[in-house]
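Lab meeting minutes (informal)
Scribe: AK
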Amino acid sequence: MLPVVLDCALWPILLAGKGTAAVRRLAMLDEAGCRHVTVFGPETDAPLREAAGTRFRAGLPSEEDVAAARLLLAAGLSAADRAAMAGLARRHRVLLHVEDDLPHCDFHMPAALRRGSLLLTASTGGASPALASRIRAWLGERFGPEWSERLERVARLRAELKSSGRNAELGPAVNALADREGWFDPPPGRAPVRIEEADPESEAARYCLAEYYAELEKRFEGGFEVGRSRAPQSAHMVRPRGAFLVAFAESRPIGCVILKGTGGEVAEIKRLWVAPSARGLGLAKRLMTAAETVARELAVKVLRLDTNRALPEALHFYRTAGWTEIARFNDDPYADHFFEKRL
């Protein structure tokens, strides 16, 4: 078998069939961007007629139809109709695929997963379509919708480097980006997660804060400006005053929280963030527990924090995790709810 990817967008393509098998093949052609598809099927096949719209023709393709095509797909046909379509396609050297009929296939259709321009396929050479579908589902768990945006970023990076004559940097730059953001790390729910104290100026800490600020920019009415917020100084985020805690799944930072202290008995919790891909796994609770543990080690007696009404999940979390709502204790313009917890 020769693995190839064909650009069939402008090809004249025929689909002959009926039932769900034909509807599924039409959906595949549409998803692939094929613009010149003619669909043949029984007049009584309402789902196929509806899916095809103006492209629908009653009956089977004529020899003239087949001769003018470059690709013929058949699905859901009887054995006699399959043989007839195969004979016409072979006579006119038209590429042919007949679902579940290997002797009449010029090629196999792999199980395909699309994420934007990213195309991942699994093929068993026709031996087991069910297994190919299972592999596609397995790939889908590891290559989520975020890969569409990742590929767009890679394309922009490639264009930028090529335009400046830096072709030799293409491969290393893409690999560095993927490694830095942990694109190929195990999913957070499957990888062991560890929480470590980090340098506030480290790459992992800066990454977490950048993601946190970007989310607030989207969710806060009027956006978010770091300069207007009460951003803690680095000295207040390291022992013996505080700590910057980062959660890692393998090498990828997936969450953070800051214990901001001044050396006294009162400290603040700041910048609690969990990556969208790691939410629902109890990581926020683990980060807060780790921050409270460090606070006790530093002889902190009272923890305080503030949050915004645009983060209802945070409000719910604090209210159910032993925090008490109190009066305003700072002048942060983005804060409108304030909490305290005695250790």
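Next up, CB showed the second protein from the same session:
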Amino acid sequence: MASYFMFGLNIVTNLALPGLSDNTIGDFNQEADVHICLQDRPRWLTQLLEQECQHPAWYTSHYQDENGKIHLQVFKVANSRYFWFKYSDASEYVIAADGSQVWVNWLANTTLERVTAYIVGATLGFVLRLRGINCLHGSAVEIDGQAVVFMGRPGAGKSTTVAAFSKLMHCSILSDNTIPLIDEGARFMAQPAHPRVNLWPKSIAALYNFAEPQPHVIPEFEAMDKRYVNLAEKGYEFGQQPLPVAAIYQLNGREQLETPLIESLSPQTALLYLIENAYPREPTDKHSRAREFQIMGRLSKTVPIRKITPPDDISRLGQLCETIMADFRGIH
């Protein structure tokens, strides 16, 4: 049994999650916010799912996998007391409507590393939404006791940027991939995630001097050679407390520039970027979209949001960090 603290939640699992540093090892029934049971779905739940598997899906993804199959279907089970996620790879996630329990089952050709990536990403993102907490898809770092968030499309360099701040500027990483936003009325707090950052080998080589290759995020995805760095094992600082969100930077595509280009955004344009980076993107419904729009609208008006275009030269990561640091301190 393993216990983790991430996203402001005490999480207990019956199997250790690879690549995550656990808080304690103890009894699976100890007090926790979320219990996650892996490959051990109770018989009563299996019978319940069998009874309701013919019902129409509550949500059907618009995305398809590489074989043309629907990526995800979600069913509401037992009078909406559970959400049953069925992925195209035959993995299944059953989530209690109060966000307190998760059961996960998968086939033999799926690794626990892949399941872990789903759990710390979309699964816990949905759990947080059930608990009334909205998230951004991005990475965050601590600067001067405040949270600075980086958003952007896949490959924009969010993880690389926070890793550079950690390595070159000695700042603590708060989160990589999922940033829960705690609404305190006058401000939003960013909750820390877990001490790990996912990077492409090129970024790892530019920032670190590891003797051995770092572990794959998802070993069976040969085409995606993304690795993870366990910050706790490597001795790098990781934020432990929620911090006020003081600035958000939308990372634009890299261009052939001598210096990074930073532009201010209007609240209207900033809101479009925030909605684009709301997480998880699926499943969702009218109620959650309306709440998301309201939260992101307030965020766009209360936090400075800028667009930054980095140089297309990974050796200039130090220059990128210094430019952002100077801009941030100029705002505040």
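CB comment: The longest strand covers residues 173-183.
No objections, moving on.
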